[in-house]
Amino acid sequence: MADDVDRTGGGTLGEFDIIARYFAPIATDKAALGLRDDAAILLISEGYELIATCDTLVEGVHFLANDPPVTVGYKALAVNLSDLTAKGARGYAYLLSLAVPHDTPESWFEGFASGLRDLQVESGICLVGGDTTASPGPKTITIAALGLVTHGHAVLRHGAKANDRLYVSGTIGDAYLGLRLLEDASLAKSWDLSEADTNYLTGRYRRPETRAGLVIALRNFAQAAIDVSDGLVLDTEKLATVSHAGAVIETARVPFSPAAQKALHRAPELLEAMIAGGDDYEIVAAVPETNAAAFEAEVRAKGAPVTLIGRIEGGREGVRVIGPDGAPLKLARKGFSHF
Amino acid sequence: MADDVDRTGGGTLGEFDIIARYFAPIATDKAALGLRDDAAILLISEGYELIATCDTLVEGVHFLANDPPVTVGYKALAVNLSDLTAKGARGYAYLLSLAVPHDTPESWFEGFASGLRDLQVESGICLVGGDTTASPGPKTITIAALGLVTHGHAVLRHGAKANDRLYVSGTIGDAYLGLRLLEDASLAKSWDLSEADTNYLTGRYRRPETRAGLVIALRNFAQAAIDVSDGLVLDTEKLATVSHAGAVIETARVPFSPAAQKALHRAPELLEAMIAGGDDYEIVAAVPETNAAAFEAEVRAKGAPVTLIGRIEGGREGVRVIGPDGAPLKLARKGFSHF
């Protein structure tokens, strides 16, 4: 078909070739119709609700031009799965839209698709459709993800109540530090980081965890949850605000990785940016005190690390941040917006 | 919040302001959670299948930088609805991803949202979520649309059989001519077009019809259907190929608007490009002969214009095009790919 078609981009590899070689092999769900149609057909079992979310990654904004395509693919899907996890939902199916320059090398598509496949295997979600189109750039990747949750059991961003305990998954600030290191490799020395530390932190920026182990614990025991894409403080504030409540975060409790602790030790001023930086994709959950023991037991059983970092407060005072010394911390910024 | 947030783009109007002012008012379905969450919750009634599709529009590829934002909004949604119509599905809900420069004026968002609203009112589909992110440009708009169809009744791209009649909705080639006129206004004179003709043709490029009136007729009587985004000949070939069949199109039967007929009269060489140009977003359907009378009666009753343009053939010979003189027409190109 390549000779019959007038292409905007004039790429040597046509849309159909790319789909057939790299995306059809990972579109194994029957709903995908082998990607030979322009829509997917999904059957939702009775008793389930469908959670729909979409996130876009723009080269130079959400990932770097020299990030390996395998991590770009993984991240594009991971940032959507973290939204589903926060809702207590399992990933079911997703649509992928790629707007990329016509001279994008075949190896990029190959790596990108293998990153998607890695996370499909981990999570059970499956590519079912999408669109590939030419763009002068930057590469712009949109995934619309659909998840399933039993009827009435979705965890929303609102719903937190005064005295709920605030938990966060994983560790905070790694992605911020990783991005800084990718932008300026000399910081590794200033922060006294080994090569392993640096690789760990840059890996956290490029390949977020999706915390699927939290899904059941959230659904059973949390009243509200959000994934941290724009910074721990700002996203906690969003959860509190739509819940018509305030929140307090104790920085002394915020979990930091060993590598991040090293950097913090050398440059304590990083603390503020780490709790207000983007791209963590960890989950913040508000859990009623009466559920706390059961929540902690369930996440322990699943090996999904969570840490108590504060609580929801009455009133509508936004987020109060308590510094390591116990005094209120005044932040220049609460978060990072990608717009 | 505007003062607390570090923005990639540094735009004066934040993501939250844009959502609150322009998108929350059109996200009236309960599933949207008022756009105050990062996901939508959809309940699919028993007995329905969900059709999922997504299409991306890139500025300079699918629309022009100086297209009015109201038509850009309308078109972004229309190109997705035409996919749902081709499946015999009604629009239910959609997610919108906008990757636009930070200095995009507020008036652009206002116009864009009003174009979406216009088509929401016409079609009953509703915005339920999305993502807004900064991009250096070009503006890149992705809509993931969800439609509903009764279980087992979706019309697919494959399924056409030898001797099926081929119908097309509306008129073909208007959008191709409209784009040419937008790129070179002097063509209006060469083609002997009035201002009204020119406005009609450019309007067809900017504001595709979504042919919702065809939904029931397709579901009840068609064996296969596709929307024409890459050219009548190429998209008909796609339908035939996945149906393991061939097709014949008689150009003497292909419907052209009065304005397009004027241009064709002055420049008969336009014919090939009109049947191989993109952006028509009309529907091609394969209808068994035994259903043809009922199909035609149903579309007449709905005021949805369709025209018989050819038939499906046995074998796997691709598409044969018969010229106006009855002889086979050899096309330099069969279609237009946006990649």
Short structural summary:
By secondary structure, the first copy, chain A, is α+β, with helices and mostly antiparallel strands. Chain A contains 11 helices and 13 strands. The first copy, chain A, has helices spanning 15-23, 69-86, 106-123, 174-183, 187-190, 195-206, 215-221, 232-242, 258-266, 270-276, 289-301; strands spanning 5-7, 40-43, 48-58, 90-100, 126-134, 140-150, 165-169, 224-227, 246-250, 283-287, 306-313, 319-322, 335-337.
Write up this protein.
The structure is a homodimer of 339-residue chains. The longest helix of chain A is centred in the first third of the chain and has 18 residues, at 69-86. Chain A folds into two domains: 15-150, PurM-like, N-terminal domain (60s Ribosomal Protein L30, Chain: A), CATH 3.30.1330.10; 165-322, PurM-like C-terminal domain (Phosphoribosyl-aminoimidazole Synthetase, Chain A, domain 2), CATH 3.90.650.10. In chain A, helix 2 (69-86) runs parallel beside helix 3 (106-123) and helix 4 (174-183) crosses helix 6. With 339 residues, chain A is of the alpha+beta class. Helix content of chain A is 35%, strand content 24%. Chains A and B meet through strand 1, strand 2, strand 3, helix 2 and strand 4 of A and strand 1, strand 2, strand 3, helix 2 and strand 4 of B.
